[in-house]
Amino acid sequence: MAKYDLPATIYYILNQTGDEQLFYVGHSQGTAIAFARFSEDQELASRVKHLMALAPIGRVGNMTSPPLLLLVPFAKEIKSRSDVYLSHVPAGASALTLMQWVQGVKSGQFQHFDYGEQENLVKYGQKTPPLYNPRKVKVPVAIFRGGRDWLADTSDVEWLLPQLNVTHDIYVPFYQHLDMTYGFDAVTRMYKYIVNIVMGKD
User: Fold this and answer.
1) Which entry of 27, 50, 112, 177 is annotated as an active-site residue?
2) In terms of Cα–Cα distance, which of 51, 60, 59, 43 is closest to 27?
3) DSSP readout, 121-190?
4) Residue 41 burial (CB < 10 Å; 0-12/13-18/19+)?
5) Hey, how many other C-beta atoms are within 10 angstroms of the C-beta on 104?
6) Is the pLDDT of residue 69 over 70?
7) Chain centroid to CA 151: how far?
8) Is 27 a catalytic site residue?
9) Low-confidence winner among 27-36, 99-108, 150-159, 188-197 (lowest mean pLDDT)
10) Can you tell me the mean pLDDT for 51-69?
11) Is 197 within 8 Å of 52 (Cβ atoms)?
């Protein structure tokens, strides 16, 4: 998603609109792929005027989300039977995406996908997957986070923040991970700041 889907989406929008830049609003995984790609592709990053990161994700070693934690002990089985499992998911999903999240929980690192030592040597020229470096993300970032987020854990987010060019840090102590997209009061607690940034009022 970071390497292919994100650049394809951004360039498609810019080509269709004729604009030089756009605003990017991402939630959870949508922020992770942005941080990953913008840290390694400065040309693409230069096309983003401002990044609004809702429930920002870099590393997830401290997350306490029960569904994801339940998957960790069964990582090998999930990988070997992923076609069977994922064929029953209504919206579809990628086995490698699930494995990437499990990898992040186990390693506590924000890094490329781990294919195993031999394949890593072929793909990356080293036995371990390279780390992403959020300090290389030059795009201005507005952070929107909650204090009760099981996935974007406070300690992981606080690891991420000093490495980014943060323009806003909107914090709602009682918000959980999905409140930013489904919360009835998200309009006043989150979205008004996004609108103001896009309109140049903040």
Assistant:
1) 177
2) 51
3) HHHHSSSSPPBP-GGG--SEEEEEEETT-SSS-HHHHHHHGGGSEEEEEEEETT--TTHHHH-TTHIIII
4) middle
5) 22
6) no
7) 11
8) no
9) 99-108
10) 81
11) yes
Strand partners, 50: 23
- SS3 label, residue 35: helix
Residue 160 and residue 39 in contact, taking contact as beta carbons nearer than 8 Å: no
Instruction: Single out the catalytic residue among 28, 39, 50, 112.
Output: 28
The dihedral built from the CA positions of residue 94, 100, 103 and 105, taken in this order, carries a sign that is negative
Residue 191 DSSP class: I
Does residue 79 carry a pLDDT above 50? yes
Is 39 a catalytic site residue?
Answer: no
Strand, coil or helix: 109: coil
Sheet architecture: strand order including 140-146: 22-27, 48-54, 140-146, 165-172
Q: Please report, for residues 45, 92, 185, the alpha-carbon distance to residue 54 in angstroms, rounded to integers and kept in the order given.
A: 18, 23, 15
* Model confidence pLDDT, tens digit, residues 137-146: 999 999 999 9
Q: pLDDT, tens digit, for every residue of 91-106?
A: 455 677 778 888 888 8
Q: What domains are there in the chain, each with its CATH number?
A: 1-58+133-202 (3.40.50.1820), 66-131 (no CATH)
Per-chain mean pLDDT for the chain: 88
This prediction's pTM: 0.85
Q: How far from the centroid of its chain's Cα atoms is residue 96's Cα?
A: 15
Backbone angles phi, psi at 143, to 5 degrees: -100, 135
